[in-house]
Amino acid sequence: MDAREVLEQVRSGQISVSDAESYFRRQPLEELGYAKLDTHRKLRSGFAEVVFCSGKADEHLCRIYERIYEAEGEVLGTRASKEQAALILDKFSEAEYDPLSRILKIEKKDKKRTGKVAICTAGTADIPVAEEAAQTAQFFENHVERIYDVGVSGIHRLLSKVETIQSANCVVAVAGMEGALASVIGGLVDKPVIAVPTSIGYGASMNGLSALLTMINSCANGIAVVNIDNGYGAGYMAAQINKLAVHKNTD
Questions:
Q1: DSSP 8-state secondary structure symbol assigned to residue 160
Q2: Is 148 helix (H, G, I), strand (E, B) or coil?
Q3: Which helix (H) or strand (E) holds 249?
Q4: What percent of the chain has pLDDT over 70?
Q5: Exposed / middle / buried, residue 166 (Cβ in 10 Å: 0-12, 13-18, 19+)
Q6: How far is CA 201 from CA 66, 197, 206, 212, 241, in A?
């Protein structure tokens, strides 16, 4: 239960003022020994803590999911293996796993998604990273438009979707090889573009370094760049930008 839910329950009489006071007196973290759960992150930043699954011991992962689920009613996990997903799916019937993006989540079903984030890929091979971005943004209650396989080698494909892209509050451009997609999109829109280099390409692409350098050196304005294959980071930033735009339009 987050701070807003506590205050709403006080207003409706479901809980007492003293119960609410006890909630706000809690420490801003929960000590598990092997992990310190940031229980006040949603209060500070608007989004609850997300679990990076890769490398975690099975018992640690299960306990972390259990505690975040108890506190928030949902959990978002990234970079989960199929074996880790099997553990969580066995423990939580509500859990869902997408092997393409490696997102492992337990999600509330009554979400209202607002605004618009456009997520574009240069090629089909970039979709796993794009899906990590898309599903992260969706988890945080943002409407997502997927526009896949619109790379610069066939630029007419991108131009056929330009109206949809221009109508978004934020654009995520996911590309490997030489990474030119972000620069082209940056020259077509008046909204922020988040560029995501991927480790897709032949030898001289250097596992995404070539795309990263292209994106960092873009001559187009309004482009920010995240790390190689960091779909989660792009989705999170896109969610923040979209939320700002939605709030501005409703003020």
A1: T
A2: coil
A3: helix 231-250
A4: 89
A5: middle
A6: 39, 11, 8, 12, 30
